[in-house]
Amino acid sequence: MTPRERILAVFxxxxxxxxxxxxxxxxxxxxPNWAKKLQKRGLGVIRHAAISxxxxxLLIFWQPxxxxxxxxxxxxxxxxxGIRKYRLTWxxxxxxxxxxxASNPKDYSELVTSPAPVEYPVKxxxxxxxINYFIKDMLDNLGPNYxxxxxxxxxxxxxxxxxxxxxxxxxxxxxxxxxxxxxAVIDFHEQKDEIQEFIELVKLxxxxxxxxxxxxxxxxIDIAENITDMTSPTYYRKYCLPIYEIYSKQLKGxxxxxxxxxxxxxxKLKNEIAESPLDVVESxxxxxxxxxxxxxxxxxxxxxMLFMNTAPHMxxxxxEEVRKYYEDIANEWGGKKGLLLEFSELLPPExxxxxxxxxxxxxxx
Amino acid sequence: xVAGNIAGTKEAVSKAxxxxxxxxxIINNGMVAGLDVVGEQFAAxxxxxxxxxxxxxxxxxxxxxxxxxxDKGQLKxxxxxxxxxxKGDLHDIGKNLVALILNSRGFDVIDIGVDVPEEQFVNAVxxxxxxxxxxSCLMTTTMVGMKDVINALIKAGVRDKVKxxxxxxxxxxxxxxxxGADYYSRDxxxxxxxxxxxxxxxxxxx
Lengths: 365, 206
Prior knowledge:
Strand content of chain A: 15-25%
Order of helices and strands of chain A: HEHHEEHEEEEHEHEHHHEHEHEHEHEH
Number of helices of chain A: 14
Number of domains of chain B: 2
Structural class of chain A: alpha/beta
Strand order of the largest sheet of chain B: 2-1-3-4-5
CATH superfamily of the largest domain in chain B: Cobalamin-binding domain
Strand order of the largest sheet of chain A: 1-2-9-10-11-12-13-14
Shape of chain A: globular
Number of strands of chain A: 14
Strand content of chain B: 5-15%
CATH topology of the largest domain in chain B: Rossmann fold
Distance between the termini of chain B: 34 Å
Radius of gyration of chain B: 18 Å
Number of helices of chain B: 8
CATH architecture of the largest domain in chain B: 3-Layer(aba) Sandwich
Number of strands of chain B: 5
Helix content of chain A: 40-55%
CATH class of the largest domain in chain B: Alpha Beta
Oligomer: heterodimer
């Protein structure tokens, strides 16, 4: 099988010849050499592409180069103590907000840069009004655009698949990217008008995106949730599950699968995830990063596929130990259906090739 | 406060003060007792991180009102902790959560920020003489920096002056033991209860 056939077999609930071993394409974009050898052996590539224009309100909020809106922004790039930062200010008729993103100095710059907020744009409850204006402005222009996705699929060919990687639901985007944990937890608890409107707008955005996704060429709709300890069962039920339901209803009758990127500890959410309409737990992390073993996941989520993250705690292990680790995983899973190994969270760059190579050895490549 | 009602907590503290209840009674018999309930509920899996965080914010706000008019000398912190995210890592969510939760439990938390080089940890230990030093990281590339900090503490002759606790997504007990940390905490929520025990042990040995 080609890497593409292997991945699609898993997507289609069929048995591949080998458990797919993949990498996010973003990690090989800037420094592809390490992956070339492994691609010859069958390493699959998972590319993310948009299916709409604008692609994502959250992405464009922080990376506004391609925006086409009434809101105006200014961006100031600078360096502070050797750290690259950029300050972004959005100005709207109802007010302005400012946030700062910074790139981690050791954040695998040779693989990918993943800047994180060091100053959140929402500092007061009233700042949500500006975010809401921004989303409304983008909603007015939202429509399907499959060109980028189709081109990505054509380009990737037999090397892998293209996935629609959708942005986060309201609570996840609030505490991770917009307001930070403390502001978000207070605002979501107090439920003032601004936050209720924000939640409704995110829901509306997702309703439209679900329609667009249903008609798109994307086989796998993946919501980039980053679920971890900051999402309690109550929050998950209130803010995540209703959005997944929207997608699930729209995707019914298509051959598409729905997943969410959940790379944290999911033990407290295992019942909620079991009840969810998700087909895939994406970036599933085994202990000690996560807190659910493969055997338990198989038992509690018998109808779900696991796209499992490479194990960060094995990053510094010897190749033979890594190989043994993945051999044990293959044995624990007991088959090839419904499991995919992906380099979806970051390993130290100098360890990636040996790590994935050992995993491929273990899975019979 | 346990339910995370910030306005309600502030109001209750103000009312108690108006009724003449001593601030230290409000803190020790009201808020600290409430935080114990929060800790128990979290440990029992009945409360989760966002809800715990909200209780901690309510406690912090209530505490600010309760302590407004009293001599700060009466408010001896349970312990002093220096906390920071190690060199090369800008992630601060876990660190901030730990600081918030410990603050609400009466610890004096000195937050030295993110991307902190080892010499800055050493200087902070020398300057503040904390009981506990906490280190956080989110990345496999930066977790090795924790060992560098411990080595720098040894080299500076201050390792035995402070208990070291580490945490963060890629860190586990095995790694903590390997690098010579005293404690490992798997999440911000359980750090409070763990360090309460540590402080009791430290004070028992003095």
